[in-house]
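debug: dumping io for the single-chain case to check the tokenizer round-trip. Nothing else runs in this session.
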Amino acid sequence: MASPPSQGGVDLVPPGREGPVALVRRWWRSRGQHRPLRYWLLFRGVPVLVAFVALFIANGLVIGWRNAYDVMLAITSPAATSSPALAWLLSLAGWLVGPAVAGAVVGYMITAEIQGRRKKKFDELFREDHHD
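debug: decoded output
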């Protein structure tokens, strides 16, 4: 098999693979390309969820998985566990974080849907027309 004719150019070596630091840096710099809901979920929701899951796992290992579940849902008092300080944090997180994240996502989705369907400006919707 004959080699392709040379056109007088310089043979370039393909770039090497990116390292993990470069991959993370490129991923972080490209975060602005995401739509607002996806951006919020990836860069605000996931860190909160990871912290919440870590707290639940810590409580599950210390006070037991069933007790951690009951404390998180406010079925059992955190004071009635073997480690009340850790259980109080889980109880507070279960009471605040879960509904707050769910409400934020649903609220954002509803707002985005309303704005997408709005055909008139807000001022035009409530303008009083006086026809005599």
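debug: round-trip ok. Helices lie at 20-29, 36-63, 65-72, 84-117, 122-125.
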